[in-house]
Each structure stands twice: as structure tokens, then as C-alpha cells.
Amino acid sequence: MIKTKSLSEAFREAEFRVGEHSKRNVQVLKEAFKDVSGNIESDFYGRGKVIDDFQDQMMKYLGKESAIFFPSGTMAQQIALRIWCDEKKVKKVAYHPLCHLELHEEDGLKKLHHIESILLADKDQLITLADVQTIQEDIACLVLELPQSGIGGQLPDYTELQAISAYCREKGIKLHLDGARLFEILPYYEKTAAEVCSLFDSVYISFYKGIGGIAGAVLAGTKAFTSESKIWKRRYGGDLISLYPYVISSDYYFKLRINKMAQYYEEAKELAKLYNQCPGVKTIPENPVSNMFHVHMNLPEKELEPILVRIYETTGIAFTSYLQQNGSSCSYETNTGDNYAELPKEKLRAAFSQLEKEISKIAL
Amino acid sequence: MIKTKSLSEAFREAEFRVGEHSKRNVQVLKEAFKDVSGNIESDFYGRGKVIDDFQDQMMKYLGKESAIFFPSGTMAQQIALRIWCDEKKVKKVAYHPLCHLELHEEDGLKKLHHIESILLADKDQLITLADVQTIQEDIACLVLELPQSGIGGQLPDYTELQAISAYCREKGIKLHLDGARLFEILPYYEKTAAEVCSLFDSVYISFYKGIGGIAGAVLAGTKAFTSESKIWKRRYGGDLISLYPYVISSDYYFKLRINKMAQYYEEAKELAKLYNQCPGVKTIPENPVSNMFHVHMNLPEKELEPILVRIYETTGIAFTSYLQQNGSSCSYETNTGDNYAELPKEKLRAAFSQLEKEISKIAL
């Protein structure tokens, strides 16, 4: 019996990938450094021109008093919450049930800081002002992730966001932005980063999602806040002797892609439409508000996987490397990056046409 | 009045530096990556061939069951101590007063883990077995730094080290090695890294001291220990999506320099002799046991600095970029790396001869 190729194998071997930028390989570093002079001095434990210049650039872009480069968002966000909890002497914060802090950090916030979290909103819904108003206990900080990636990258209306911000200020609750994908939502909101960030007391941004860098994050806020964050960065062992491999590559890819976010957003809407035309397929959100969304297909994994493998092999177009089964249906996250514009459109159409045909045979 | 050049300016402008390898600049990264294929896949949150292979190499080199790559030693060591404290349910450890954990981490161990520390030995002395035997309280772990860099890089006799290890095992105290400069002491001990590490339950090593990489560390021990350390690495935000900029450069410089440690050690002894021939100058230790030592000169900074600046300007040879004044004398740390072999020996002799002459005029 011939073993069928697995989805991840077929994905790996396919000529074209619908999402992402390029592959995550050493070329990403090589490209970022190819025109950088070897004489540029390393940063030195958080100091030096190379890190100062990039931090200044991000500080201005975010419209904050100060910005500090971190190895990771996990580190930056835990530190932000710790600072707000210490300031208010309240070890409690609130965030979404699918928040990175809750799902992907092995309970670092609790284990390292003994900070309790209140989970706001149902896990398939956005946090609303009404949710925030239900909080009975005293909390130091509310975290909002824009877009909420765990539910396909949904966004509240901007007026709702303004209302939550005003409410938090009135109640003495610090508002922290998980802006891992902040750049990606600006075309939808039609706001500058600084305008969005003005609603928040502290902001984290990432350089390896829409920007497509190697790794790295920035935490921004008042000077007092970031000064305190630098002490914690040292405590965490994040104040490396040299962060320039991440700083310089973040700078390179920021400049390369920051003005392409509107293009990615338009492409995401186009791609979501292609999915939504297929029977038994829907995207969440139906109309993307950034470069990302979730795809839900009404088929169990054992039926869907061979269909996708055949599509990848026939057309060379690969949609996803994995499927997550929920009951009798499957879902996956997708996005649009530099790869999307490179796709031969007739092959993309052929892939969707085959998807529609194969699903119709089974599902309907 | 013409302003005299500062020591750091003169150091920066001098043609030759006595210590270190090359300058800490982007060239260090470029050299490490010049022959690395762009097709090599990034590690992905601590997994993948690029990180697995290097961890395996270090595991074997250190003779431990398992080794995990970390962004920094600060992170790796705090985590090691936390694991040992949790295992024994005793939140107390012992280490030297000049330990990195005590001096350079903004009290991370206390602030993040509430672990108390007992400071062993006078700060200008090594920790002895007798010191360890004086500990009355129950402790989870003893940290030994080999060599003790804060006092010029001194080392206990190997038999003393064995005795401390045996005592700790008998008493149920875990022994952790701060091996930031482990590679550098192996020629003096005439032992393999695995032999030294066999005396310890957990070991941290660094890749940007004698090895001269960009940044990065490895923590090694039993599989159970390193599995737990990976969870903590995630909690700390050290489990980056891509650590390959540090992994690949650490691997490159490890291979380049691991067999040069004996050379650096011999050169350090030669350099220390040159210093010790000068009146009012002594090195600690008098005979280095690694590639590092401290230089003490019996002159206050305001008299010594202009002498050094003149030497740098006349000979092109620069000894140090800074001076630390202690009472009426000064000291600094120095070491031997790739730079030392490149020094024109007649210029080095001229520099020391000028040092001797100028100090003699004032000090005697």
C-alpha cells in the first residue's frame, strides 16, 4: 500500500505557499545584513547607536515618550504588566481567554510574578466595553490584543476602542496594547500607529509577523515606564550584550514592508472571498480587517487532508501546513504576505476550483 | 588650554589592543555567516536541526545528558537555581559575593523567584571547602564560578574542587557551575570539560567570552533538569521563534577558537610577567590560570591616566579602556585573545618599557 503524503510534507514540497513572506531560513538574515557595514559597532547591553537609533524610530512611530527593544514579546508584556501591578499595588490584570499570556507562556505571569488574571469575554468573542464594565474587582491593567489573533484577527470598532480607553482612564486601569500585529490593522482603522497607541498606556509590537523579521519586540510608553522596564529586562536576562542581529534585521524588514500593509490587507480580503465562494467553507472574520484570518471547513481532518494534499500536488499551490479539527470540521490560520503577490493567479484559481469541486463531491 | 585625551578615547583610537579578539562589530556576524547557506532553515521555538545539532555537540562536549541553548547566562542560571530550589523545596542558595547573580542582574533571583542567597567567602578570596562547611542553614544549591572573574580569574586547586563536590553530594546540595569561562581554564587544570562538569549537577557556559561569539549560552544537566529548564525558558520569553543568529555564530566561533585556549593561557602568563616586571604593578593572580587577570597599579587615576594615554599615543599599544580606582591605586581586568598574537612584539616591549619608566619617575 502506498502511504499518502502528509499535509505538512505536501506543504513543504509545494512550489507556492499562499501565506507568509519567504521561508524562515538563514537567507532572511543574510538579506538584512548584505548592505550593512561590518564596521558598525555592536550595541552593548542595551546601549549604542545601533539600538538607540531604532528605539528612537519606534518611539516616534508609536508616538510614545520612549521605546525599548526586547528579545521577545513574552518578556516585554509580562514586564509591562508587572510594572503596572507594582505601581498600583494590585496583582491582578484582565485579558482575553485566548491571550498569548494565558495560552503560550507556560503561566510565566503567574509563576514569575504571582499576578492573577481575569478572563474577559467568551473565547470566540471580542472584549467589549460591557465586558470591561462587569469587572467587580480592582485590576491594575487591561490587555487588548489588536487584532485578536486567536479568533481570526477580529477588531472592535474604533469607537468601541475609544470608549474602553476612556473607561479605563476614568477607573484608573492601565490599558496595555498587545500590538503583535499592530502594523497590519492600520489600513483598516485608517489611523496612524501613534493615533491607536494614544489610547493605550503601554504598547508592545513585534517584528516577525507582518514585518517578517527574525525575532524581536519593542515595548513603549512613558520614560518612567520604559526605565523601569529596562531594569526588568536585565532581571530577565534579556539585556543581552548584543541584540543587533535582531535590531538590524527588524529595522531592515520594517523599512521594507511597513508600507505594504495596505496591500496585504487588500489581498487578504481577496483571498477570503475565494474561500467564502467554496461550499462548506467560511472565513472568520468574513471580511478580514488585517492580513490574517481563520479558514473553517465543514469536513473532518481525515477527509479534508487528502483533498488538500491532492490540490498541492496538482496545482503547486499550498494553503496550509496543518489542520485543527473541531468536532466534525477543521480550521487553520492564514495570512497574506509577500508570497501572495508572487502566486500565479491561474494556479490559484485552479486550486480553489479543485477545492470547490472536491468538497462538493463529499460535503453536499 | 588643550584638553588631554581621555583614556577611553585614546584606547578607541590606538592601533593595537592588547586584549580581546577583534572589535565587537557587525563583522563578527558577517564572518560567522559568510559560508552558511541561506537555505538552512531557522530553528522554530527551540526546535529544528540548527539548534538540535549545536545542543547535541555541547551536550557531548560537557559530558552531560542534555544541553539547551539560551539567549543569556543570566536567564540560564536563574532558571537552574529555581529548578534546584523547587526540587528541594528550599528557597536558599549560596554563592560568592562577586557572583554575577549578586552583582549584575538587578536582583532578578530575589525579585522573580524570592530565592535568598548566602554569600560565601570574603570578596577577595575563593570559596573553600571550609567556607562551604560553615553553612548552617539548609541550602538547595551552591554556585561556583570557575574561574572567579571578579578576583582576576582565580581557581581553586582541582583537589579542593573535588572535595567541595563530594561534600555537596553527601549533604544533598546541588552544585552548579558558572562556567562563563570554562573553556579558558581547561589548559591549566589539564582536564576535559566533561571531567570538570562531572563534579557539577548543572553547568552554564557562554559563547561571547573566550569563544568571542555574538551572545548566547548553554545550560546542561540531566534530561529531567533541562526539560524543566525549557519550560522556564518559555516563561522567561527566552524561547524565541529564532535563536539561529546566536546559535550559528556560537558554533562558528566555538570551532574557530576552542583549540586556542592553551595558546591564550600561555600568552596570559607571558603578559602578566611583563606587567609584574614594572615597579608598583602587580597582577592578580600573579600567574594567570586562564586567559584573564587583573592588573593593579600603585597610582591614583589622575596620575595613571595621562601616563597610559601617552603610551597609547606613542606606541599604538592600548592596555585598557578604563581604570577602577581603589584608594590610591587603580586596577583593571585584561585578557588575551586573538589580538595578542597580532601585536608587534617590539611595540609591546616599548609600551612596557615606557610604562616602567613613567611609573618609576612618579611612584618611587
TrEMBL record, chains A, B:
<keyword id="KW-0032">Aminotransferase</keyword>
<dbReference type="InterPro" id="IPR015421">
    <property type="entry name" value="PyrdxlP-dep_Trfase_major"/>
</dbReference>
<dbReference type="GO" id="GO:0008483">
    <property type="term" value="F:transaminase activity"/>
</dbReference>
<dbReference type="GO" id="GO:0005829">
    <property type="term" value="C:cytosol"/>
</dbReference>
<keyword id="KW-0663">Pyridoxal phosphate</keyword>
<feature type="domain" description="Aromatic amino acid beta-eliminating lyase/threonine aldolase">
    <location>
        <begin position="40"/>
        <end position="296"/>
    </location>
</feature>
<dbReference type="Pfam" id="PF01212">
    <property type="entry name" value="Beta_elim_lyase"/>
</dbReference>
<keyword id="KW-0808">Transferase</keyword>
<dbReference type="InterPro" id="IPR001597">
    <property type="entry name" value="ArAA_b-elim_lyase/Thr_aldolase"/>
</dbReference>
<dbReference type="GO" id="GO:0006545">
    <property type="term" value="P:glycine biosynthetic process"/>
</dbReference>
<protein>
    <submittedName>
        <fullName>Aminotransferase class I/II-fold pyridoxal phosphate-dependent enzyme</fullName>
    </submittedName>
</protein>
<dbReference type="InterPro" id="IPR015422">
    <property type="entry name" value="PyrdxlP-dep_Trfase_small"/>
</dbReference>
<dbReference type="GO" id="GO:0008732">
    <property type="term" value="F:L-allo-threonine aldolase activity"/>
</dbReference>
<comment type="similarity">
    <text>Belongs to the threonine aldolase family.</text>
</comment>
<dbReference type="GO" id="GO:0006567">
    <property type="term" value="P:L-threonine catabolic process"/>
</dbReference>
<dbReference type="InterPro" id="IPR015424">
    <property type="entry name" value="PyrdxlP-dep_Trfase"/>
</dbReference>
